[in-house]
UniProtKB/TrEMBL annotation:
Residues 2-242 form the Exportin-2 C-terminal domain. GO terms for biological process: protein export from nucleus; protein import into nucleus. This is Exportin-2 C-terminal domain-containing protein. One of its GO terms (cellular component) is nuclear envelope. SUPFAM superfamilies: ARM repeat. It holds the Pfam family CAS_CSE1. GO terms for molecular function: nuclear export signal receptor activity; small GTPase binding. InterPro entries: ARM-like (IPR011989), ARM-type_fold (IPR016024), XPO2_C (IPR005043).
C-alpha cells in the first residue's frame, strides 16, 4: 500500500518517544510482526528495516534478546533467497547500528545464534563485497564506525589477518569516497502506479535521524581506535596494513 512510508515514519516517531512503554508491553511483539511483514516484501523491505533499526537503537538488548534468533534467521533466509542490492544495503546498516549501540561482542553472540561463525561468514561473503552500496552521510558513518569497532575490538577478525586487512581497506576506501554509494532503487520491485494516498513532498521531508549523532567524524574514530589497537599489539598492526 502506498501509505506505508508515512505509517513507518509515524511509528519511528512514536518509538523514539515511547521506547520504555514498548519494551514493557505486548507492543514489541506487534511491532516485530509489522517488521516481519514489511521485510518479506521486496518493495517495502527497507521500511521494515527502519522499524527494526529504531527498536535496536531505542530498546535495551535484554528486551530484544529472545526475539533476535528468529529475526536473524528471517533476515538471512531472505538474503539467501532474494538479496537485492537494496536489501543488502539495509541489512548492513542495521547490523552497523546494532554493533554501534550494543557492542561487537553482543553482535557476535546474537548473530551466531543462527550458526557458529555466522558473523565472520557474513563479513567475508557479504559485507566487504557490498559495503559500497551504503550511501548517505548518516548510513555511511554508522557503517564506518561499526567496521572500525570490528577491526579493533573483535579478536576473531584480527586472527584472520587477510580479512582484517581487507576490512581496513574497505573502511579507508569508504572514507575517501565520502558519502556517495552505488545508486540503489529504494522502491525495489514496487509496481509503478499512482494512488494519491501518500505523497511525500521533497521540501517537506523531515531531517534524517542519526543514531550516532554524537560521532562527528568517522575518520577520526578510525585513527584514534587504530592507534589504541596498534599500541595494544606492538609490532603487529603495521605489517598487517601493508
Amino acid at each position: 500500500p502506498s501509505n506505508i512510508p508515512g505509517l513507518v515514519r509515524l511509528l519511528q516517531a512514536y518509538l523514539t518517544k515511547a521506547a520504555a512503554e514498548v519494551a514493557q508491553g505486548e507492543q514489541l511483539e506487534r511491532l516485530l510482526g509489522v517488521f516481519r511483514k514489511l521485510v518479506s516484501s521486496r518493495a517495502h523491505d527497507h521500511h521494515g528495516f527502519m522499524v527494526l533499526n529504531v527498536l535496536v537503537e531505542g530498546l535495551p538488548l535484554q528486551n530484544l534478546a529472545q526475539y533476535m534468533p528468529t529475526v536473524w534467521q528471517l533476515l538471512f533466509t531472505r538474503l539467501q533467497q532474494s538479496g537485492t542490492a537494496k536489501y543488502r544495503r539495509s541489512l548492513l546498516v542495521f547490523i552497523s547500528v546494532f554493533a554501534c549501540k550494543h557492542g561487537v561482542a553482543q553482535l557476535e553472540q546474537s548473530v551466531n545464534t543462527v550458526q557458529p561463525g555466522m558473523l565472520m561468514m557474513l563479513i567475508t561473503q557479504v559485507w566487504l563485497a557490498s559495503a559500497s552500496l551504503v550511501a548517505g552521510p548518516v548510513d555511511r558513518k554508522a557503517q564506518n564506525v561499526a567496521l572500525t569497532k570490528l577491526l579493533t575490538e573483535w579478536p576473531v577478525l584480527w586472527a584472520d589477518r587477510a580479512t582484517w586487512g581487507k576490512a581496513l581497506t574497505a573502511v579507508a576506501t569508504l572514507l575517501a569516497a565520502g558519502d556517495d554509494g552505488e545508486e540503489v532503487d529504494e522502491e525495489g520491485d514496487a509496481p509503478v502506479e499512482y494512488t494519491g494516498t501518500y505523497v511525500r513532498l521533497a521540501n517537506a521531508s523531515t531531517a534524517e535521524h542519526d543514531p550516532l549523532a554524537e560521532v562527528k567524524d568517522a575518520g577520526a574514530v578510525l585513527a584514534a581506535k587504530l592507534g589504541e589497537f596498534s599500541a595494544s599489539q606492538p609490532g603487529q598492526v603495521a605489517p598487517a596494513i601493508q
